[in-house]
Amino acid sequence: METVMISACLVGDKVRYDGKGKYNPLVKEILQKYNLLPLCPEVLGGLSIPRDPSEIVKEKVITKNGKDVTKEYNKGAFLCLNPISFKHVRKAILQDRSPACGVNKIHNGKFDDGLITGEGILTKKLKENNIECYTIEEFYDKFIKEDKKDDQTLNELNELVK
Ligand code: SF4
Fold first, then answer.
1. How many angstroms is it from 51 CA to the middle of ligand 1?
2. Is the pLDDT confidence value at 146 over 80?
3. Structure pTM?
4. Nearest-5° angle of CA 118, CA 120, CA 123?
5. What is the overall mean pLDDT for the chain?
6. What is the pLDDT of residues 26-46, one digit of tens each?
7. 92 Cβ neighbours under 8 A, 6+ residues apart
8. Does ligand 1 come within 6 angstroms of the Cβ of 123?
């Protein structure tokens, strides 16, 4: 089975800034067709659980209390590449809106819950290394839902020729 990297919080690991996970029930279906490699770049970069929330402000990552944690984010993204390359991973499922894992949207850097178009530090690094990046919904629609339709059509054809 192909191995796909996934943001660790999406499988329920309690690695988020607030000490909680963000389990997504689509994980169960994805696991039937793929091995998952859960990684949290923020924790790998040396940040604690819990920690102050951070947002991307221009080229830097800054905590709500004004601390520059860009170095930790870059380190975490870099460290993710090792297991990814070891396991021959070509695709990643990432938690949107995160300053590390955001795929299509990130917070606007004003800590007011506003969102802008953009991607996280890890996502950028993965794309530079030719890893395809998806939100979990995008991945499900592209690789699970379509397969399910094909399986259903095949089953219907099998029934017809019986
Ligand atoms: S860095 Fe990524 S994996 Fe870690 S808590 Fe944030 S979104 Fe989840």
1. 12
2. no
3. 0.91
4. 105
5. 95
6. 999 999 999 999 999 999 999
7. 4, 5, 6, 84, 123, 126, 131, 132, 133, 134
8. no
If you measure from the C-alpha of residue 81 to the centroid of ligand 1, how many angstroms do you get, rounded to a whole number? 15
CB-neighbour burial class of residue 131 (10 A; exposed 0-12, middle 13-18, buried 19+): buried
**Residue range 57-66: average pLDDT?**
96
The encoded tokens of residue 14 equal 């309690």
Cα–Cα distance measured from residue 129 to residue 123, given in angstroms and rounded to the nearest whole number: 10
Name the residue with tokens 């990432």: 94
Q: Is the CB of 51 under 6 A from ligand 1?
A: no
CA distance 29 to 37: 15
> Using CA atoms, how far apart are residues 73 and 111, in angstroms rounded to an integer?
18
Q: With a 6 A CB cut-off, is 16 part of the ligand 1 pocket?
A: yes
